[in-house]
Specification:
Shape: globular
Bound molecules: adenosine monophosphate, glycine
Helix content: 25-40%
Radius of gyration: 21 Å
Structural class: alpha+beta
Number of helices: 13
Length: 431
């Protein structure tokens, strides 16, 4: 089979790595890919939003399955464009990707179908939003409606902060058009869990749970980022909680999307908070999480390609989706200054052909790297590399990931030193 993966980050590197293990794969392409992905797939210089070029490429190369990694093309309707041309593609159609593309849509859906989530109101008029804030309980959470690169969420501690955020979003348009429509919601507390799930629109098969670390700096301080590291499984996510989520969140979401006439097929990401009142949905994403995928897919036992085909064909019920009993940890090496301003083009040392030689059970997933004309590996993004280790237990995986990360250097490298600490504490408390 020939497979095309669309995207250029660590998530796509993890997908390509997993797909490459399938005995049925003859050739993998990645558009546009990156320097690390290039070791496993032929990278083609087509952007993820260049739908016409991607379709033409898939036809020319007779691609059997295209896998869309990123949110932007999914929300933009790339799956509909591929399907119209008779091409097989893994991912939700536009009318289902809206689950991530519009927070107002997803909140209204959850309200209508009684799926537990934070209480909320949506606003298109800044005056009404400001008036609502006069009496609302603090802290409070404000979310710009559309995709805002993970930055469209503000947690305001005080009324003044909340009002300033409304003005920034709705009047000063700091998140562009996505701030025209703002969701204001109740502040929830509790451990966060990410659950990625395969679905063919009929059944849902969750993957091993994981924990992201979204803030830029240690002790969960600094700005929100795309994610600075992950561990799997998430120790807070017990089998009892998993069963409750299946019954109250996962299946109801699939049924709700069907009832609305927009069945979801692909990978559905549930961002959950385990509140004192039970698990609640913080957000849906319409694709694999990044860097969750870098700890989840290495634990997958079985053929990812086969499972993705089953999601596309509507035969997921027949698939056995199994994960190993081990653990995985991913430490992100970022460019200093991320998520705001950072430099690119810094030479990276310590890697041979993009990987760490002499390290077993470690994979270095490339998020933002490039090769210069003379073949030097350089930084090319805010998140640069994700160093993932697997091990029988989380403590092994974590210490191994950090040991391995020490071998990689570039100017102004920034990483958190406390990835997984909270998970280890939770594990210790369980015993
Ligand atoms: P989101 O982009 O919706 O995932 O939000 C980013 C982060 O903001 C989440 O991972 C949470 O840590 C936090 N957050 C979002 N919504 C809430 C909420 N209602 N209560 C508390 N924290 C939240
Ligand atoms: N790590 C969070 C996300 O993929 O959106």
């Amino acid at each position: 089979m020939k497979v095309l993966v669309v995207g250029s980050g660590g998530r796509e590197h993890a997908i390509v790595t997993s797909v490459a293990k399938s005995p049925r794969v003859d050739k993998i392409y990645c558009a546009p890919g990156n320097a690390g992905i290039a070791a496993l797939a032929e990278c083609v210089p087509i952007g993820a939003m260049e739908f016409d070029k991607l379709v033409a490429f898939a036809k020319e190369k007779e691609i059997d399955l295209t896998v869309i990694g990123m949110d932007d093309p999914l929300v933009g309707g790339i799956v509909d464009v591929f399907e119209k041309e008779g091409l097989r593609v893994f991912g939700p159609r536009k009318n289902a990707a809206i689950l991530e593309g519009s927070k107002a849509f997803s909140k209204d859906l959850m309200k209508k179908y009684n799926i537990p989530t934070a209480a909320y109101e949506t606003f298109t008029d800044p005056e009404k939003a400001l008036e609502y804030l006069e009496t609302a309980k603090m802290p409070i959470v404000l979310k710009a409606d559309g995709l805002a690169l993970g930055k469209g969420v503000i947690i305001a501690q005080t009324r003044d902060e909340a009002k300033a955020a409304v003005r920034d979003m709705m009047e000063n348009h700091v998140f562009g058009k996505s701030g025209d429509h703002v969701v204001i919601e109740e502040f929830l507390t509790g451990p966060e869990v990410s659950v990625l799930a395969f679905t063919d629109g009929k059944v849902v098969k969750p993957m091993v749970s994981s924990m992201d670390h979204k803030r830029a700096n240690d002790h969960d301080t600094g700005l929100n980022t795309g994610g600075m590291g992950t561990v799997a499984p998430n120790p807070y996510y017990t089998p009892e909680i998993a069963a409750e989520c299946m019954e109250k969140i996962f299946l109801p979401t699939i049924h709700a999307m069907n009832a609305e006439g927009c069945p979801f097929k692909g990978c559905l990401y549930f961002g959950l908070m385990l509140t004192p009142d039970g698990p609640k949905v913080i957000e849906y994403n319409c694709r694999f999480g990044d860097p969750e995928t870098q700890v989840v897919l290495p634990l997958l036992e079985g053929d990812l390609l086969h499972i993705m085909e089953a999601c596309t064909n509507g035969t997921l019920a027949d698939e056995d989706v199994k994960f190993s009993d081990g653990a995985a940890a991913c430490v992100i090496l970022a460019s200093g200054g991320y998520p705001v301003a950072y430099e690119k083009g810094k030479p990276i040392s310590g890697l041979v052909d993009g990987q760490l030689p002499d390290e077993e059970n470690v994979t270095v997933y490339h998020s933002g790297t490039a090769l210069t004309e003379d073949g030097t590996l350089v930084t090319n993004g805010g998140r640069v590399l994700g160093v993932t280790a697997t091990g029988p237990r989380l403590t092994n995986a974590l210490s191994h990931a950090y040991e391995a990360a020490e071998k990689i250097h570039f100017d102004k490298l920034h990483k958190r030193s406390d990835i997984g600490l909270r998970a280890l504490k939770a594990l210790a408390e369980k015993q």
